[in-house]
């Protein structure tokens, strides 16, 4: 399959003409219909879901595990009949090696067996939806600062570093600074920047040494609607995340948070996607409750991304039961909140995890394969279990505890082959083999 040819099939032109005096809801609807004729062209060479190929990394990780049942099971696993796994979510695609939220990254995730792929959803100046991790990350995830005409439109155009004063290079470019047509001219890149840069081109560097730029030569950025068309062709399910805006809402006094949340769901309705195949998610509980109320078929599997600080309240069974009573079905915290160490320094479910399951909430964890080498405890994502993390292979132990003891529904991964491998070998997609939480 030639990804570059696929990328050339994505053609989106034009912008939305402003209506004279529309209401906020009318403005959103007019914008949507103004783009109705801009259909995603066929994926000319993608006739079916790609064959799953795990590559060497999962096996390398399994070989590095301490001797024990998990290592033996994974090493003995027959991977000749791999199928996509909904346990394995491609976090922004496969950004350990491919530019995040690009066509290339998404196809790589599907090839690694991710049964669900994430498009983080932000909006452009003309109120169209695109796949970006944050509204204000174009300066680190695309080449925008090296495109003079678009750099000039940034909230903070590129400023070179000043070695004499020690001032680092600066830039801030938002999706809401550009139109959809302008966004589509950008090139996705590895999420990084060089704070010492004195030129825009140098600013595009800075990729972590445990990632790579080998596959950054092509980075085809996508609109949200294009991602839906691609994911349908790939045969995967959908996890769109409504990103919390950095601009004041209503945007330009008209486009409300509710308009934004409604527009994201409407894209799936327009594309004929079954609601059961979509898990809309947000860090704002208000968004999740809005979907539950306004789009109940989608709201049933809406995901609340819980980043609240751990306190007696937010760990409590009462907190979890209250979320459940409001209609929340799926809770997704950072993986460290779901884990702790017992008195023998073994990784076990945390009180937070136990109470969430007791309240009847499904759990999704984020994110593995995102922290680089784990020899020094794994950093932020592993902060509650750092004393038990001392090698890259420990990620499989973490996945095993999350699956078998916490009983998570799925795990986000920057390299989905690892979670796909585990899911296949340990049959975590078989309901009768999933752990049931004790009361």
Automatic annotation (TrEMBL):
BP terms from Gene Ontology: glycerol metabolic process; lipid metabolic process
Keyword Cell inner membrane recorded: no
Residue span(s) of domain GP-PDE: 86-423
Range of residues in the leader sequence: 1-19
Domain of life: Bacteria
Broad enzyme group: hydrolase
UniProt keyword list: Glycerol metabolism, Hydrolase, Signal
Reactions accelerated catalytically: a sn-glycero-3-phosphodiester + H2O = an alcohol + sn-glycerol 3-phosphate + H(+)
MF term (GO), any: glycerophosphodiester phosphodiesterase activity
Chain segments annotated as transmembrane: none
EC number from the UniProt entry: 3.1.4.46
Entry's family note: Belongs to the glycerophosphoryl diester phosphodiesterase family.
Protein name: glycerophosphodiester phosphodiesterase
């Amino acid at each position: 399959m030639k990804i570059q040819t696929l990328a050339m099939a994505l053609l989106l032109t034009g912008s939305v003409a402003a209506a004279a005096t529309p209401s906020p809801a009318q403005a959103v609807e007019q914008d949507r219909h103004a783009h109705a004729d801009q259909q995603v062209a066929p994926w000319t060479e993608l006739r079916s879901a790609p064959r799953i190929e795990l590559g060497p990394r999962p096996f390398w990780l399994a070989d590095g595990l301490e001797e024990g049942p998990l290592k033996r099971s994974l090493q003995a696993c027959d991977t000749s009949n791999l199928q996509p796994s909904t346990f394995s979510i491609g976090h922004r695609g496969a950004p350990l090696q491919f530019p995040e939220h690009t066509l290339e990254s998404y196809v790589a995730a599907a090839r690694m067996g991710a049964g669900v792929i994430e498009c983080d959803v932000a909006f452009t100046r003309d109120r169209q939806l695109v796949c970006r991790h944050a509204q204000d990350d174009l300066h680190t995830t695309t080449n925008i600062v090296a495109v003079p005409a678009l750099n000039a439109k940034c909230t903070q155009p590129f400023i070179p570093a000043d070695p004499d004063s020690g001032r680092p290079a600066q830039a801030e470019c938002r999706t809401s600074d550009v139109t959809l047509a302008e966004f589509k001219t950008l090139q996705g890149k590895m999420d990084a920047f060089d704070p010492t840069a004195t030129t825009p081109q140098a600013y595009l560097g800075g990729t972590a040494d445990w990632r790579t730029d080998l596959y950054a030569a092509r980075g085809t950025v996508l609109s949200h609607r294009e991602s839906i068309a691609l994911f349908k062709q790939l045969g995967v399910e959908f996890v769109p995340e409504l990103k919390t805006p950095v601009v004041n809402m209503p945007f330009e006094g008209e486009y409300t948070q509710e308009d934004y949340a409604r527009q994201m769901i409407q894209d799936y309705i327009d594309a004929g996607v079954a609601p059961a195949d979509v898990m809309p998610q947000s860090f704002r509980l208000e968004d999740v409750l809005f979907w539950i109320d306004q789009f109940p078929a989608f709201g049933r599997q809406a995901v609340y991304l819980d980043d609240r600080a751990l306190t007696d309240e937010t760990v409590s069974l009462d907190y979890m039961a209250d979320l459940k009573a409001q209609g929340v079905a799926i809770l997704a915290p950072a993986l460290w909140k779901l884990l702790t160490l017992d008195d023998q320094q073994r990784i076990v479910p945390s009180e937070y995890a136990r109470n969430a399951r007791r309240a009847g909430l499904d759990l999704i964890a984020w994110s593995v394969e995102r922290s680089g080498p784990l020899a020094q405890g794994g950093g932020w994502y592993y902060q509650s279990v750092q004393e038990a993390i001392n090698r890259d292979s420990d990620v499989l132990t973490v996945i095993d505890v999350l699956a078998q003891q916490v009983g998570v529904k799925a795990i986000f991964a920057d390299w989905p082959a690892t979670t796909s491998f585990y899911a296949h070998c340990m049959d975590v997609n078989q309901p009768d083999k999933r752990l049931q939480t004790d009361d």
